[in-house]
Amino acid sequence: MKLPFKSLLLAGTLITTSAMAQQVNTLSSKEKKEGWKLLFDGKTTKGWHTYLQKDVSPAWKVVDGALELDPEAKKSGAPGGDLVTDGEYENFELSVQWKISEGGNSGIIFMVHEDPEYKQTYLTGPEMQVLDDAKHPDGKITKHNSGDLYDLKKSAQNAVKPVGEWNTAKIRKYNNQLTLWLNNVETVNVTIGSDEWKELLANSKFKTWPGFAKFSKGHISLQDHGHEVSYRDIKIHVL
Predict the structure, then answer these.
(1) Which fold has domain 27-238?
(2) How far is C-alpha 10 from the geometric centre of its chain's CA atoms?
(3) Of 94, 117, 165, 212, which sits 20 to 30 A from 185 (CA to CA)?
(4) What 3-state DSSP class applies to 29?
(5) What does the pLDDT look like over 12-65, one tens digit per residue?
(6) How many CB atoms are closer than 10 A to CB 175?
(7) Domain limits of the chain?
(8) pTM of this prediction?
(9) What is the pLDDT of residues 142-178, one digit of tens each?
(10) Is the dihedral of CA 198, 110, 187, 101 positive or negative?
(11) How many angstroms separate the Cα of 151 from the Cα of each of 40, 68, 104, 142?
């Protein structure tokens, strides 16, 4: 039976969508040759732990191939907390897909120094903001929008997708040169320790924090800000 043109398009879309789904949480041959490594296998929390804990909090679950924070689990007594990688990284390129809930807030934090002296990941690690810009109060604050270097530098261009859609964030840090991308749009470019950086820091909430951005090597963290958020296709290339 010959399908109508619309049905053929639909069938093609389904095939394409299926093919794309199979590519999530995997590495292409090119990526493998370049040295990329998966930080999340799409099935387990292997390679991660809750900050200052040995294991992963049960509030973080693997759902449909994504690491998802479940706020309802926290209401039922499950401890929360930011996830951090078991490994530490200094010079790297990181790629992560994220999807935020309506009114939600989270973040991708890096250069995290894990030490009981610092009770939270953000006390040492800079953050690339993850947010529902339209409905979370932080969306009205400069340098607090998706793709921003949180409270330090505003995105050069707004590139976030609507709530419910997957965004792709990339963070590249090499010899203190820090570049952020959101959905293939460069949002931030700054050199850590430069005069510009010192000025940004002096005008931020972090200006008096003794450990902030002081450790060049550290863990990568997915923030528990109390809202439902999902992360997947997390991969890193050590430079």
Answers:
(1) Jelly Rolls (2.60.120)
(2) 32
(3) 212
(4) helix
(5) 444 344 444 458 999 999 999 999 999 999 999 999 999 999 999 999 999 999
(6) 11
(7) 27-238
(8) 0.90
(9) 999 999 999 999 999 999 999 999 999 999 999 999 9
(10) negative
(11) 28, 25, 17, 8
